[in-house]
């Protein structure tokens, strides 16, 4: 049920003193091969943390053997010195594992603008290497070590029809409280695949899972999703089977991020149908998912469809063609808006479940798209106003 | 100090029972000429309230004599019946004032998706007509009648060098709590100007004042800014002088909206300099102003510059070219970020004043731009989660 579910992987999670709480804060995931296939997707923020800059060039050849991850510091906006820290971390781990530094990817999460305590981090890397194991417990400890404000560790695994396995771990205190150093994901598989197939599977999976979770429109400087393939099962897996396995694990982990949004009291699924294109549907869904007035209303158990319609109206017509007079909105199954106007009585809507379903019919085409988000709560404000103090 | 400061205008504000509190809720502003010049700017939301649809076509000829405004209901998403209600309101007021319905503009503010109680509204319009006066008190009562969650009425006036006067009133509970039916503004002048000059002055003024207030990125279905010119001073005013007068009154009213954001504890001025163009500067300023993590940090008196830099990094390079490694950020005068990395100690920043100044230097060009916003607070969440319940 974690990165060690797939054969050919060892992992560890240790406490190195980066977190003031004494909790685990350094994780290491190692592929023992025989393959060293790797793919990765990174944040599109132009301000990229040092570990993202390092890992992007290190994985460019489609190969990696290890990932060293730390919580307790994002190593973002730390200048050339911060990049040197990430480079040095990779070299340190590589030396210990008898690898090239280019085969070691680095991930960090925590506060921006603070240098990492390198002595503690490198000592933690050594301790993690010493603790490496292919057990389920070791995989869980790695997942624990990357937690920040997460209340639970997030892991997933699936066995493909061919018998190959895909496992994974993720961190992210929901996407509602991403703290700008939000989402780190490591997915492993023992399938025999090449780098191009791994890359295609990972990009396809993230586009329909992690990319569709959007709680507060704040894009991280550190987001990283990594796929490592060890080939240890000896089972050759086709592109479609791998894509489906990676997608399934990604979907499970993405849903776990939404469910653990600490500040949140509702998980909100925005589904837009009858759009002229998937992009148009996603643009409308994203605008609704990002509207603070919609999110605050959901916190108040208020099916305020006027705010949903108004958010949809903010999307330019060139992006999502539709006639506002044909809009229909269902909240938790009740059609509160019909033909752009008043529908069923909003008092019929039961807003008490944690999961809120918002369905918007644009009446313009046959395409659809969905986004997951959370509500805007007092706890969100509290958590994010007190983070660095 | 209100719409009656300019000669040739009468106004009134009465209680018609649209608000459950019994407060004033219907306002009327009438130009007695000799001119009937008018210009207006409306929300760009594709979901447009019935009064916006009515007023847009009514003012298309550059002429209007009266504005009837109500709080207690936005008349948005109310279908053909809602439009008929706005039309009927204009006709009712026109009959009483012996005008054409096309010379009467209509504004509404309040909850979306609810029909207006027309009997109460029309009776209120009659009462307002009976109470019309050119006194300062009448102008203030009109400003009071358009308040929703505003804690104070907002008025302004200035005398131009030529002796002509520009006055105005606005409503909006800050822009932080726009309730989607946010901003109504009526500006009056006794200057002798033509419709094209009035239109240019109003568009120029809104572009650099009201359009630069952005508290939560939620665009209203009802936003309307109207300029009426009576010509009653007999003073011919050139385009530049009128533009400056309208801009000054607009700036005063826009700043008053920010200052009265009920949920807010800080007014935040985001100034972006050294951009390649004004549009680029505004795009970066707007992204920062809309970032919930930045806004929540300011609520917590936390000069969290990492979140500011990360928000800037979300703007696509095609929109705002700059090198993240050259970014500099000052918060209340302290340069907390230099060359994209750590600058002065953030503990040097005094965040206790209500006004917070965020200055971002992109190091890319000579253009600049600014946006006003507010912080994200518990009161914002409270107010917006309980609005329609």
Automatic annotation (TrEMBL), chains A, B:
Catalytic activity: N(2)-acetyl-L-ornithine + L-glutamate = N-acetyl-L-glutamate + L-ornithine; L-glutamate + acetyl-CoA = N-acetyl-L-glutamate + CoA + H(+)
Site (Cleavage): 181-182
Cellular localization per UniProt: Cytoplasm
Gene Ontology CC terms, in alphabetical order: cytoplasm
Entry EC no(s): 2.3.1.35, 2.3.1.1
Gene Ontology BP, a term: ornithine biosynthetic process
Family stated for the protein in its record: Belongs to the ArgJ family.
Protein name per UniProt: Arginine biosynthesis bifunctional protein ArgJ
Phylogenetic lineage: Bacteria, Bacillati, Actinomycetota, Actinomycetes, Micrococcales
